[in-house]
Structure to design on (792 residues):
């Protein structure tokens, strides 16, 4: 059964429409606007649920000339991610009115939250590469607004700028990779979704690309672009999903309100990179894919788990934990086996359930206790018994303790790592060891979070009030779902996970999960991780202090140190460069403009290999050669001229030689234009030359700079002419063929250029003439008014 365009389009657009209506809704509902947001999220969830069991693409034309459309693709993977966004959105919007009570700027908060939800649903369902990128960047924009919600707080401003800098910067790398992919895929697919852009077939239809994964992958390899595309997409996914070394923005983003952290930074936005990897996995999966993403994911899983142990704030701990679990998902999708896809897809669901619940629990603790500092908290089960039960289920799931839901997906990761040994040998054993090592620290920080509720109550802890139902119900529901998945994992598999895995795996198999009934290497890995983590917990304080001491002793180890160094370096460079570029001198502006233009042009020619110096040759008649020789002599004479007038007159010789060259090259129309322009320029120069003051002595450095710049500009112009005139396409484009076939019978001429300008594009020419005439009349009017001394 195919999806319905109207339903899919409504699921994407309703949140944006609601975001626009928030200012009016807030005037009516006030702080209860959050419940209206919950209703919108529930409507989106219902719309998406109505497409359950469908599989296929729908589209709405957007830019027909470029074949860019709002294409949407519905399958199990898209529905899993989109329904997580809308489903958890219902709970976050329900949670927000109580938590955000009394805050300023709530219309901005709810509007950004709704727009963010629509962006996530758009990313999940989009099947057009351009649409994916636009929704991708919208998530970063909304995240910037929400992280920086407290606009008067310097830490919020810092965190928002950091998140924007990292995620948007990574998105630009991803855009380049997607454009390369579109260009190569267009030559392979050859369908109606292909558009001719500059002689290169291009398609942005991701659904069509994924229908031909082997052919597109082989074409990328033949062009030598497989690794560049893989690397560019990896940068985009890694920055968005907080992978090492770009993990540092996520803990800083905890400056956002806790509902934002639960929604954006645990359940949805940070998983966008993981989602993209799952979507592109059937296309790019390879040996290089495994080496890159299995290594990246396991490194992130381990490093961030260690940093979570060093945390002093409960939200900071959960943030590093989130990055660690994102690494688990990336590593799962990195392994090329079917089990790897199972681990990635299943953990995306499991992590959203228990981590969103834990963030909301952290919000309850901060709201009711008044502190998030780990060392100041403990024994909260006496004051918050229901919250403690919710935290217990979610924390044990996070630790991967059976029979809680996190155990099953981590077990699948261990199984995938063991299977990699057959393909990778020694490196596979290293993956096994790193996965176990990282999981030990996962158990450690999970037990520390649980100790906030089951440990001893600090004497300095004041009265703790019970949270309202609206704060408690959302995390309790999420923890309840996590518990159901833990007890009945096959229910979740049959409901949504199996179809999601089928969409991300190269080959489809039936998925089976459950508590192990016999020994396996994966079970042994789990036992080691849980056992060593449990036995190490009494030494948690020493481990915590030891990890914390490393950045203090070696500052470059801290990722924030590198970010601050880069930002400060860029700021200082800008402060140094600005007065040198914007100093009010025309010579300076011309220098930077010409130098930058030449650099970009030459770099483009070099990158595309448009010019091969070994193939250059000169084919000119004696007359043309003589004219060009005179032009060269005139150019040298301009430099050596003793006065401005002599230089201008000598320069005109060069211009007239170019006109003669056009005549000899059978281009009389260009020659006439050149003669007219050259004559007018010569007269204008002679008229104004008397007004130019005598120049002061110019230093040798400036003369050298100008000479080098002149040589670079000349070389760029030469290379550009050679490249453009050397182009000999095998065939004419459809538009060119149209003009060629109709030039003589319909245009009444034999010169194709003239016919195009006068007949086929007569209205363009007439419009240009009208513009020139209007400008001339305006100038004449101003001159007459000035002569009469009239004012406007």
């Amino acid at each position: 059964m195919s999806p319905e365009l109207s339903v899919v389009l409504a699921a994407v657009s309703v949140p944006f429409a609601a975001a626009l209506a928030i200012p009016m809704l807030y005037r009516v509902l006030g702080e209860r606007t959050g419940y209206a947001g919950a209703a919108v999220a529930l409507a989106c969830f219902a719309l998406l649920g109505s497409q359950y069991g469908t599989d296929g693409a729908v589209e709405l034309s957007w830019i027909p000339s470029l074949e860019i459309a709002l294409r949407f693709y519905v399958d199990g993977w898209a529905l899993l991610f989109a329904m997580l966004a809308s489903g958890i959105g219902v709970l976050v919007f329900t949670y927000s009115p109580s938590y955000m009570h009394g805050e300023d700027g709530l219309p901005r908060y709810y509007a950004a939250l709704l727009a963010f939800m629509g962006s996530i649903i758009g990313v999940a369902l989009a099947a057009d590469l351009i649409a994916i990128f636009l929704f991708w960047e919208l998530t970063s924009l909304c995240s910037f607004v929400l992280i920086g919600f407290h606009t008067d707080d310097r830490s919020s401003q810092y965190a928002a700028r950091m998140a924007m800098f990292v995620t948007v910067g990574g998105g630009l790398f991803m855009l380049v990779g997607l454009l390369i992919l579109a260009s190569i895929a267009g030559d392979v697919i050859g369908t109606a979704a292909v558009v001719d852009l500059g002689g290169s077939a291009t398609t942005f239809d991701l659904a069509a690309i994924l229908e031909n994964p082997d052919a597109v992958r082989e074409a990328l390899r033949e062009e030598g672009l497989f690794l560049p595309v893989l690397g560019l997409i990896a940068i985009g996914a890694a920055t968005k999903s907080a992978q090492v070394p770009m993990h540092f923005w996520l803990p800083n983003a905890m400056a956002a309100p806790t509902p934002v952290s639960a929604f954006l930074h645990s359940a949805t936005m940070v998983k966008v990179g993981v989602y993209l990897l799952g979507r592109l996995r059937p296309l790019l999966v390879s040996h290089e894919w495994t080496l890159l993403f299995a290594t990246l994911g396991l490194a992130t899983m381990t490093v961030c788990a260690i940093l979570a142990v060093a945390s002093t704030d409960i939200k900071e701990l959960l943030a590093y934990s989130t990055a660690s679990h994102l690494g688990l998902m990336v590593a799962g999708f990195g392994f090329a086996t079917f089990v790897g896809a199972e681990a990635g897809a299943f953990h995306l669901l499991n992590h959203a359930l228990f981590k969103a619940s834990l963030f909301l629990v952290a919000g309850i603790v901060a709201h009711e206790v008044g502190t998030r500092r780990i060392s100041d908290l403990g024994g909260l089960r006496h004051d918050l018994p229901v919250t403690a039960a919710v935290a217990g289920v979610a924390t044990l799931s996070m630790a991967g303790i059976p029979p809680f839901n996190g155990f099953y997906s981590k077990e699948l990761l261990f199984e995938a790592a063991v299977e990699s040994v057959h393909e990778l040998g020694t490196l596979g054993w290293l993956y096994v060891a790193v996965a176990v090592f990282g999981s030990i620290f996962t158990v450690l920080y999970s037990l520390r979070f649980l100790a906030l509720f089951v440990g001893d109550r600090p004497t300095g802890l004041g009265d703790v009030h019970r949270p309202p139902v609206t704060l408690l119900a959302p995390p309790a529901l999420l923890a309840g779902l996590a518990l159901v998945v833990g007890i009945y994992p096959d229910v979740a598999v049959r409901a949504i996970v199996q179809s999601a895995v089928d969409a991300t795996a190269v080959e489809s198999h039936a998925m089976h999960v459950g508590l192990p009934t016999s020994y396996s290497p994966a079970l042994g890995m789990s036992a080691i991780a849980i056992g060593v983590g449990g036995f190490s917990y009494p030494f948690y304080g020493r481990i915590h202090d030891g990890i914390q001491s490393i950045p203090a002793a070696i500052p470059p180890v801290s990722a924030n140190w590198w970010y601050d160094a880069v930002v400060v370096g860029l700021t200082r460079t800008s402060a140094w460069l600005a007065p040198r570029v914007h100093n009010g001198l025309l010579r300076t502006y011309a220098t930077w403009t010409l130098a930058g233009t030449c650099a970009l042009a030459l770099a483009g020619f070099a990158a595309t290999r448009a010019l091969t110096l070994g193939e250059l040759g000169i084919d000119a008649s004696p007359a043309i050669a003589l004219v060009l020789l005179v032009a060269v002599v005139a150019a040298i004479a301009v430099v050596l001229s003793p006065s401005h007038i002599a230089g201008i007159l000598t320069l005109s010789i060069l211009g007239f030689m170019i006109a003669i060259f056009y005549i000899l090259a059978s281009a009389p129309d260009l020659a006439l234009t050149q003669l007219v322009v050259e004559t007018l320029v010569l007269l204008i120069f002679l008229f104004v030359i008397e007004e130019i003051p005598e120049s002061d002595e110019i230093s040798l450095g400036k003369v050298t700079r100008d000479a080098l710049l002149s040589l670079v500009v000349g070389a760029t112009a030469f290379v550009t002419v050679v490249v453009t005139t050397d182009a000999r396409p095998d065939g004419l484009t459809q538009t060119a063929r149209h003009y060629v076939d109709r030039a003589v019978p319909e245009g009444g001429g034999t010169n194709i250029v003239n016919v195009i300008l006068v007949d086929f594009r007569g209205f363009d020419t007439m419009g240009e003439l009208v513009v020139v005439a209007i400008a001339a009349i305006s100038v004449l009017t101003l001159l007459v008014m000035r002569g009469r001394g009239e004012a406007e």
